[in-house]
Design brief:
Elements (H helix, E strand, L loop, with lengths): L4 H63 L6 H19 L6 E5 L4 E3 L7 H10 L4 E5 L3 E8 L4 E8 H53 L13 H42 L9 H18 L3 E8 L2 H8 L1 H18 L5 E6 L2 E7 L3 H17 L1 E5 L2 E4 L2 E7 L7 H17 L5 E3 L2
Parallel strand pairs: 11-12
Antiparallel strand pairs: 1-2, 1-5, 3-4, 4-5, 6-8, 6-11, 7-8, 9-10
Helix pairs in contact: 1-2, 1-4, 7-8, 8-9
Length: 429
Amino acid sequence: MKINLNLFSVIMLPTLLVSVIVTFISTEYISRIVLQETKKERNVALELKVMSLYNIVLADYKILFYDLKESYDYKQYQENQQKSIIEQFKKETSNNDEIIAIMTPSKNYNFTKTKLDFNIIEKEISTNGNIVSIYYTEEYTYVIKRFKPWNWSIVYASNTKNLNNIIDSTTNTIIFIITILVFSIMLIVSLVYYLNIKKPFNDIFIYLEKVALGEYKYFKNQYVTKEINTLLSNINNMVESISKREELEKRTNKLELEQEKLKQLASLDHMTGLYNRRYFSEISMHIFDLSKRAKTPLSIVMIDIDKFKNVNDTYGHQIGDDVIIILSNILKELQRKSDIICRYGGEEFIVLLPNTTANNALLIIEKLRKIVEATPVPVDSNKDLHFTVSAGISQIIDDELNLDLVIKRADDALYTSKNNGRNKSTIQF
């Protein structure tokens, strides 16, 4: 059986702790109050007991008083009447386990079998002038009622230990009831706290953790506390706002990506995958300015497929496209990270080589030219086509301010290579 430690810690532990503390602090105070009240009730009960005995004497005394009107021997009549009362007490209390006694000036009468210490009672009577007095000893608790007309004292006594047991039992019962009541109240308070505060906030924290992970769902739970529901409403509004903002950001990012793709598509040649002339016009000026500021060399190479018109006329435009694609792939394979290769138009290509002198550019292009010359283009299953390229190379001059002049020199160098028999590379400064 698994125990929900969270629930246990929230409800049971505080309840037990507070209940124990409250019970511990209040036990002695409550005990005193209960003991005091119980003793009051006990004393009232004892007084009622002795008063019932007193009423017997009082009733007989009244009878005696009225009879005296007809009697001439008052003293003898009184003695006879007192004897009659004592005999009546003796008869009525013969089977009583409680101690009942009458103390007269001439003699003390104990109507029970228990031995009674009349000296203690006489001492209490002599020191206490109350009509009704209660005297406690370790063994007995005495209630003494005086009958002044005859100077009698009626004594009713109970076992002190039995009385204390009754008091302790009553006190413990009341304390137990109070403890259960306190525990029940704390349990109810803890349950109210859990249902109205702890559980709602726990649910809210779990919900916010999901929100942090990007799960934007409306929180539908409803609670008793108005403040909690108001808080939830505000959180839902906040989450809805975040969700809308993130959705807007996603759409914006998607549009930006699509725009970037469109921009890239607009900058690329769809056949070769190389940059087109439009992109070259944008990027070349930027690279030209960087080279001028950094005072680093920049070379430009113009490349043209030799006798490309003859290829199209002889083998068709499909083979012509294959030749262009094969040359583009070779250029990509030889391309460095900083190089910019563009299809300039038709069978013509242009290459920007940053941080490269014209002589180093010649080495790169010569390598390209030899690879192209050795690369076959399949025409059909029985025949391959070989093609060549010519190239013109130029380099920017230190004080040069116009990139078009550099491109023109590279183009002039290309035509020089063409006029010198094709399949050549030429530098022009």
